Each structure stands twice: as C-alpha cells, then as structure tokens.
C-alpha cells in the first residue's frame, strides 16, 4: 500500500465556521494528519524561523551562524533564569526549551488537533487571510527516511539533527545519514511542558539544505497535504466560537502570561462584536 492510496481526498477551500472545521478534522484524523495554523500568508510558509530569509540575511551580514549563536547563547544564559534547567549535555531538551520560549530554531510546530491550528490561524493579523495546513506525518517520513511511522526523540536521525543544530562533531555515519536526508522528519517528543500537552504538540525538524523548501513542495502526493484559508472578516467569529469550546489563550498557554493575554483578547472580542452590533442597529 502506497502513501498515495491510503488517504482519500479531503475538501479544501475556505473555513467560515468551527462546525466546518470539525467536519474536516473528522475526515483527516483517520489518516493521521497534523495541522499548523499561520495567521497570514507568509512568503516562506512551513519554514522554521531560523531558516527564513530575514534571519539568513542577518546571519550573512553579521558573518555568523545564527542557529549556533542562538543555541549556545541560550544554553549559556538561561540557567540563571530558570529553576530547573536541562542537563547541559541534553541538547534535545535545550532545543525544545528554546522553541518553547520563542527562540528561532530548526523546529517547526504542528498540532494533532485541527482546532488548535485553527486558533493560531485566526488569533493575529486581523486584516489578513489566515491559513491552516494539514500534513500526513507518516507519509512525510516514508518519503524522507523510509519509515512509515511518526518518529520519537530517540530516533537516530532525530538525534543526529539535534546534534547538528548544537554544532556537535558528527560521526561519519551521521554525516552520511544527513547527506541522504532530503525531507524534514516528523516526530512527537516526550511532553516536557504544559503548553506542549495543551496544544497537542508535534514537530518537524529541518536542516539548512532542505529548510528553505516548503513541506508541500517536498511531499510527493497532493493527498498528503492540504491547505485552507480563513478570510479576515470571519476571524473574530471563529475565535469566539473556539472560545465557547474552550480553545482559548489561557488553555493553550497554561501559564500566567497566557491567562493575561486571554483576558485581554476576551475584552477585544467583546469590543469588536459590540461595535458591529452598533453599526447594524443604526437606522438606514
């Protein structure tokens, strides 16, 4: 059985309400899709932050490998700011911690929950079109490293990519593995942080020679990935519907910062709907 014949076509197009997203998610869940929400149309979608052109240009200007700079400076300075830092030798946990706090890394965030991705597609850039991507993770791995399954953090290729990110000395076998790798592996890590659990978090891990290509360009079959758009005018409506289902900032970021942002978003949403109601109430 090939990757192309185990996934039936799923309807694409625009998402206008949460009910529609639930129906799409029901179809996609059976095939093992992961989802990613982006609040606007990026020039380089599905690309890890550290490999996007803005950071590449900065690295060239500074004559620095910015991935290495971020990694080593974060590891050097973070222990003074947290109570239980990872072991200095555990580069995998350090990479997750960096991504957890927004440092540019070679990790690209995904979610196993369609509604979580939908939330991230509507939460910001209210005047721009949001995007939800779906990717069949096992299909990506079958195409890229001949493993028809989702990997975990113990997998040899994942650990090799982490070692490369940390600037470690790679063995000859590891270098040969990377030379053959032309897809970013999809893996699910051990859940170390509450927001990873809340967001049903998963990742693809990239490297520079493939980090500049979009995943939808790498996957061999259009049935392995999908893309939906959300028009700007329905973003507040969908966010309100998601909130009614418990998909809110404080649930996805279960820390004090998430609670604070959630309260502010609640006020902004009420303001938006109040202003619309006032417009509709005016006599024509």
Distinctive features:
single chain, alpha/beta, 4-stranded mixed beta sheet, 14 helices, 8 strands, 47% helix
Order of helices and strands: EHEHHHEHEHEHHEHEHHEHHH
Shape: globular
Give a short account of the largest sheet.
Answer: 4 strands, mixed
Number of helices: 14
Overall tally of domains: 2
Low-confidence parts lasting 5 or more residues at pLDDT below 50? 1-7
- Which percent range describes the beta-strand content? 5-15%
What radius of gyration results from the CA coordinates?
A: 20 Å
Please report the distance between the alpha carbons of the first and last residues: 62 Å
Q: What is the helix content? A: 40-55%
Report the mean per-residue pLDDT as an integer: 85
Q: Please list the strands of the largest sheet in the order they lie side by side.
A: 1-8-4-2
**Class per helix and strand makeup:** alpha/beta
Query: Tally of extended strands?
Result: 8
Please describe what this structure looks like.
The structure is a single chain. With 284 residues, the chain is α/β, with parallel strands linked by helices. It has 2 domains: 3-247, no CATH class; 250-284, no CATH class. Helix content is 47%, strand content 13%. It contains 14 helices and 8 strands. It has helices spanning 18-29, 53-62, 66-77, 91-100, 114-122, 137-145, 156-165, 172-180, 194-198, 208-211, 215-218, 235-244, 249-252, 256-281, and strands spanning 13-14, 33-38, 107-111, 130-136, 151-152, 186-188, 201-205, 225-230. The chain has a 4-stranded mixed beta sheet. A 4-stranded mixed beta sheet has the order 3-7-6-5. Helix 5 (114-122) packs across helix 12 (235-244). The termini are far apart. 31% of the residues are buried.
């Amino acid at each position: 059985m090939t990757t192309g014949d185990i996934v039936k076509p799923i309807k694409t197009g625009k998402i206008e309400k949460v009910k529609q997203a639930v129906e799409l998610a029901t179809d996609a869940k059976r095939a093992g899709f992961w989802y990613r929400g982006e609040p606007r149309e990026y020039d380089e979608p599905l690309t890890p932050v550290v490999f996007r052109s803005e950071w590449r240009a900065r690295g060239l200007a500074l004559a620095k490998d910015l991935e290495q700079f971020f990694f080593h400076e974060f590891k050097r300075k973070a222990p003074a700011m947290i109570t239980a830092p990872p072991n200095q030798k555990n580069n995998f946990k350090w990479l997750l911690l960096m991504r957890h706090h927004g440092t540019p890394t070679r990790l690209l965030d995904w979610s196993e929950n369609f509604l979580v991705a939908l939330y991230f597609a509507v939460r910001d850039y209210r005047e721009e079109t949001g995007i939800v991507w779906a990717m069949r993770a096992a299909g990506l791995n079958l195409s890229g490293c001949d493993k028809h399954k989702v990997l975990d953090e113990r997998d040899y290729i994942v650990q090799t990519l982490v070692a490369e990110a940390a600037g470690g000395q790679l063995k000859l076998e590891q270098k040969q593995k990377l030379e053959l790798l032309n897809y970013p592996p999809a893996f699910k890590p051990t859940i170390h942080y509450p927001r990873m659990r809340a967001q049903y978090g998963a990742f693809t891990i990239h490297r520079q020679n493939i980090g500049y290509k979009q995943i939808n360009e790498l996957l061999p079959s259009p049935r392995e990935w999908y893309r939906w758009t959300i028009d700007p005018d329905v973003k507040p409506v969908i966010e309100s519907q998601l909130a009614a289902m418990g998909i809110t900032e404080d649930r996805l970021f279960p820390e004090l910062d998430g609670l604070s942002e959630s309260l502010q978003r609640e006020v902004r949403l009420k303001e938006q709907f109040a202003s619309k109601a006032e417009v509709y109430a005016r006599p024509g």
